[in-house]
Design a protein that fits this description.
Chain lengths: 117, 114
């Protein structure tokens, strides 16, 4: 009975490289949220996706960041041409999507710690 | 812009004490509110969810309440134990949001000493 699975747990990239972060939601969950936790800051919403659709990307930087949640497979958060300021913990959360998207608790993964050299 | 303040930022208590963590929103229009626990290097564990029609929730030694008129929530921990040591985060969904995105406070780091 796996919870939300994120991989890798730790990712090191050099400036200018690409980072791909993966999130497999809990079984039966069709809604995925991505949050970022910068050092010494709280978690900030980035993007909300349902299968094959981006619903709300109001928290995602306009450049270099993209997210997808394909019909099959995990959700991917992609960061192109990474910079030092991208170093953070990236968390994924999922919810069932039934009973109203605002009414269900979000279940979080253990996060991916991204370090940019 | 909705902001969330958690007070205190850090708290150290001896084992067995009852304690209260506070959370307040600049805009009191909160649809629902969730309390989480975060252990170092780990993800978030959901503790309690107060739905839009509710005012409080209880689970074991934990009780959370939400005053929608003021936008304030409290998390009460009874008979604290060393295993309760963690960072506690509150997060709310603003009423105007229809997507369920959570707005987080910066957390209260709790240390319970044996």
């Amino acid at each position: 009975n796996a919870g939300v699975m994120q991989n890798p747990r730790h990712l090191v990239r050099r400036r200018g490289q690409e980072a791909r972060l993966r999130c497999s939601p809990m079984k039966g969950h069709s809604h995925v949220y991505w949050y970022r936790q910068l050092p010494e800051e709280g978690l900030k919403f980035m993007v909300y996706l349902q299968k094959e659709n981006i619903i709300d990307e109001s928290g995602m930087p306009k450049e270099r960041f993209s997210a997808e949640f394909p019909k099959e497979g995990p959700s991917i958060l992609r960061i192109q041409q990474v910079v030092r300021g991208d170093s953070a913990a990236y968390f994924c959360a999922s919810s069932p999507g039934t009973g109203g998207r605002r009414n269900q608790p979000q279940h979080f993964g253990d996060g991916t710690r991204l370090s940019i050299l | 812009k909705q902001e969330v303040t958690q007070i205190p930022a850090a708290l150290s208590v001896p084992e067995g004490e009852n304690l209260v963590l506070n959370c307040s929103f600049t805009d009191s229009a909160i649809y629902n509110l969730q309390w989480f626990r975060q252990d170092p290097g780990k993800g978030l564990t959901s503790l309690l969810l107060i739905q839009s029609s509710q005012r409080e929730q209880t689970s074991g030694r934990l009780n959370a309440s939400l005053d929608k008129s003021s936008g304030r929530s409290t998390l009460y921990i009874a008979a604290s134990q060393p295993g309760d040591s963690a960072t506690y985060l509150c997060a709310g969904i603003p009423s105007e949001s229809n997507t369920g995105k959570l707005i987080f406070g910066q957390g209260t780091t709790l240390q319970v000493k044996p």
